[in-house]
């Protein structure tokens, strides 16, 4: 009987607080989708997940970089990894959503995490403004899918070469794409920390999903910008190849990032895939295929759809509200979603060394800029204090994050009173009607104010965008002009030095032509050969680039010294030849 093809994983993940931060706002996720086993940054290292064979449902690896200061960033990244973990397991076990393609379930899980984080940011004042990046690598069979929100990164190492698979959703990346700045300039740009998308920053996000075919011995690396901002990708590949195992590779990468400043939290996940289920790569052409959102993918998950036996329906035997049975697929038993051991808002214990660090996290990132969605301008009914309080204390999983349609929200008329007037109207009815008219008028005015505010916001964003574009273009033009002026000055200095030396050389040649005495034939030959060598040196100097101007100056100084020696010798011999005969007994001139 033929052996079934296998795909084996060897991996490790590690996170570090860095050298400056007092807390670690990064997190990571390792998830075996076939068994439900998982590993996050707040959990102990599981030996059974460091090496294992990939099952039917595949594997999910991810890194999340939280932001928001205080505990908000820590909460956001933890919510991101735990929500995506739970939703991936729940969606694949669902009778209806389990029929979605693998990469659309990944996309939908990340979108669900965004809704929950955004809801927490809106309802909990302590977590206002929290957000997180999220970079996921999900594999099923020999296919790998990349889900990207923000500026954490995923790399692929194949045949000793490393390739960056994801693209940063950041302002500097847009400037690079537009040709405004270079990759090198982006590393030190003042806006390098401004990202254009983050989980929780807005109710809607665009999850960029790409795919590749895995090959045997492919190594995937996911990291937060605390690592990618300090270490070049070629260095990452070199350190991983030089390490004895992935654990020591992770530690070496973190150590190097800390040696170079360690201003941010640092997280890295390394995973290598091998086995008979993967073929050898025939070329190094790495071109991820972009996957647009399928029109069949729902914009919001409704766990009520499906048959009564749906494993996601509530069951009295399940502590987390989901059934522990898994029978919707006949291929193999479905995993049970892991229960949430601690609330998202719980503080993760820190060591004394971490507490001694600075608590100023205000410079964690620049402002999150994102495109406003239509629901930002929709009319929403006012929420009473009681409703607002219940929204804060309601569990995140059960919170309804669907946008409220103002047209479906109506004010119920007051019930009819027992006593009525002859014309059928109730006593005090005119007051009730007046009250309703007044409330309706207030709602109308509120809608007008909201529309005006929305218009002002759109105009403001447009003005800022135009102003920023104009500013960057002006900066680029000024920078180009400065570079051209510097290049011109360097070229003039270089040509000036070489030109003066060539003139000096021509002057010496003229003096040699005047020394036509036979007794000086041998000396003239030596001097001519020396001049030829110096002329060749000048030709070599003229070929040097302007970036080597200090070396050019040093080389020209040496040629000038040699020319001065030759000129002095020729001049002395010429003077000696013109002396009267009575002076021929003086000391000879040493040449």
List keywords for this structure.
14 strands; alpha+beta; 12 helices; Phosphatase 2c, domain 1; eight-stranded antiparallel β-sheet; 2 domains; 591 residues
Describe the structure.
The protein is of the alpha+beta class. It folds into two domains: 320 residues, Phosphatase 2c, domain 1; 105 residues, no CATH class. Helix content is 40%, strand content 14%. The chain has twelve helices and 14 strands. The strands form two sheets. Strands 2, 3, 5, 6, 7, 8, 11 and 14 form an eight-stranded antiparallel beta sheet that branches. The protein has a six-stranded antiparallel beta sheet with strand order 4-1-13-12-9-10. Helix 6 crosses helix 7, helix 10 packs parallel to helix 12 and helix 11 runs antiparallel to helix 12. The longest helix is centred in the last third of the chain and has 86 residues. The radius of gyration is 37 Å and the shape is elongated.
What's the overall geometry?
elongated
* Overall pLDDT: 77
CATH names the topology of the largest domain as: Phosphatase 2c, domain 1
Distance between the termini: 94 Å
- Roughly how much helix do the residues carry, as a percent range? 25-40%
CATH level-4 homologous superfamily of the largest domain: PPM-type phosphatase domain
Rg, rounded, reads 37 Å
Q: State the low-pLDDT regions, or none.
A: 307-440, 579-591
Overall structural domain count: 2
CATH architecture of the largest domain: 4-Layer Sandwich
> Helix count?
12
The main sheet comes to: 8 strands, antiparallel
Write down how many β-strands occur, each being a DSSP E stretch of 2 or more residues: 14
Strand content: 5-15%
- Give the helix/strand class: alpha+beta
Highest CATH level, the class of the largest domain? Alpha Beta
What is the H-and-E element order? EEEEEHHEEEEEHHEEHHHEEHHHHH
User: Oligomeric status of the shown chains?
Assistant: single chain
């Amino acid at each position: 009987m033929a052996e079934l093809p296998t795909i084996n994983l060897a991996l490790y993940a590690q996170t570090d607080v860095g050298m400056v931060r007092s807390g670690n706002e990064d997190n990571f996720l390792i998830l075996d989708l076939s068994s439900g086993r998982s590993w996050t940054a707040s959990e102990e290292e599981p030996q059974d997940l460091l090496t294992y064979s990939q099952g039917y449902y595949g594997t999910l690896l991810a890194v999340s970089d939280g932001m928001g200061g205080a505990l908000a960033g820590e909460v956001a990244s933890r919510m991101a990894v735990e929500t995506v973990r739970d939703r991936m397991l729940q969606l694949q076990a669902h009778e209806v959503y389990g029929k979605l393609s693998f990469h659309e379930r990944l996309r939908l899980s990340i979108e669900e995490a965004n809704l929950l984080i955004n809801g927490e940011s809106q309802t909990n004042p302590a977590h206002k403004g929290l957000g997180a990046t999220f970079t996921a690598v999900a594999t099923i069979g020999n296919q790998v899918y990349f889900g990207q929100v923000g500026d954490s990164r995923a790399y692929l190492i194949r045949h000793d070469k490393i390739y960056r698979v994801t693209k940063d959703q950041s302002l500097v990346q847009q400037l690079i794409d537009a040709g405004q700045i270079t990759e090198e300039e982006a590393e030190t740009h003042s806006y390098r920390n401004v990202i254009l998308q983050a989980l929780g920053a807005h109710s809607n996000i665009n999850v960029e999903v790409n795919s590749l075919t895995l090959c045997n011995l492919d190594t995937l690396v996911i990291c937060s910008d605390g690592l990618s901002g300090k270490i070049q990708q070629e260095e990452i590949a070199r350190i991983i190849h030089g390490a004895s195992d992935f654990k020591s590779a992770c530690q070496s990468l973190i150590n190097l990032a800390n040696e170079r400043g360690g201003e941010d939290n640092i997280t890295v996940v390394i995973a290598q895939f091998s086995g008979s289920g993967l073929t050898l790569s025939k070329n190094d052409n790495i071109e991820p295929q972009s996957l647009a959102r399928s029109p069949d993918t729902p914009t919001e998950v409704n766990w009520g759809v499906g048959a009564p036996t749906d494993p996601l329906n509530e069951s009295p035997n399940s502590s987390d509200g989901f059934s522990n049975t898994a029978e919707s697929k006949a291929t193999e038993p479905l995993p049970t979603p892991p229960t949430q051991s601690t609330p998202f808002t719980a503080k993760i214990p820190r060591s004394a060394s971490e507490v001694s660090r600075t608590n100023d996290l205000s410079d964690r990132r620049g402002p999150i800029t994102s495109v406003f969605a239509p629901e930002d301008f929709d009319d929403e009914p006012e929420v009473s204090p009681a409703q607002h309080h219940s929204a804060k204390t309601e569990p995140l999983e059960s919170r309804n994050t669907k946008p409220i349609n103002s047209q479906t929200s109506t004010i119920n008329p007051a019930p009819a009173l027992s006593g009525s007037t002859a014309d059928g109207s109730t006593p005090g009815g005119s007051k009730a009607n007046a009250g309703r008219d007044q409330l309706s008028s207030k709602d109308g005015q509120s809608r007008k104010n909201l529309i005006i505010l929305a218009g002002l916001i759109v105009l403001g964003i447009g003005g800022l965008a135009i102003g920023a574009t104009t500013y960057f273009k002006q900066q680029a033009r000024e920078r180009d002009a400065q570079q051209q002026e510097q290049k011109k000055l360097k070229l003039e200095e270089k040509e000036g030095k070489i030109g003066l030396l060539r003139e000096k050389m021509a002057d010496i040649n003229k003096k040699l032509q005047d020394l036509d005495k036979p007794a000086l034939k041998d000396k003239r030959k030596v001097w001519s050969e020396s001049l030829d060598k110096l002329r060749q040196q000048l030709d070599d100097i003229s070929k040097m680039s302007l970036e080597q101007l200090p070396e050019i100056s040093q080389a020209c100084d040496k040629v000038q010294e040699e020319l001065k020696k030759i000129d002095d010798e020729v001049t002395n011999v010429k003077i000696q030849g013109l002396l009267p005969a009575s002076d021929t007994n003086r000391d000879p001139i040493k040449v």
